[in-house]
Amino acid sequence: MIKREVLHIGLCKARHDIMTNDGEEVTDFFFEKIENPHDYLHIERTAWDKIVSDVIPDFDTVYIYVTGLTMALTSVLKMFRLNWDDFQTIQLMHYDRETNTYKAQLWK
């Protein structure tokens, strides 16, 4: 299977409308809804399922638009760490209010 080059994915759906810096809408998310933000095991399992079913098979580079809960982000990063060798690049995208764009923070 040939991997696509880049995935743009949001952390939590419906927290904010997310557009890439190229003007494309981000429509894929790790979490549709988090019922209990302190159910870390459930959050980690949801992140794991998304990574192994949708992300690892198809992408070399992942841009994660950081919107939402800290525990969601740490769970996603923890699950990526378990599959570290499958990715060349993971970028965390943080919103910059001054420029209305996202700034990349290299994670891996």
Explain the overall architecture.
The protein has 108 residues and is of the alpha/beta class. It has one domain. The chain is 26% helix and 31% strand. It contains two helices and five strands, in the order ββαβαββ. Strands 2-1-3-4-5 form a five-stranded mixed beta sheet. A hairpin with a 4-residue loop joins strand 4 (89-96) and strand 5 (101-106). Helix 1 crosses helix 2 (70-81). The two termini are 23 Å apart. The model has no long low-confidence stretch (mean pLDDT 90).
Please report the distance between the alpha carbons of the first and last residues. Answer: 23 Å
Low-pLDDT segments: none
Q: How confident overall, as mean pLDDT?
A: 90
Order of helices and strands: EEHEHEE
- Secondary-structure-based class equals alpha/beta
Number of domains: 1
Quantity of strands, as a count:
5
Report Rg.
13 Å
Q: Which sequence of strands runs across the widest sheet? A: 2-1-3-4-5
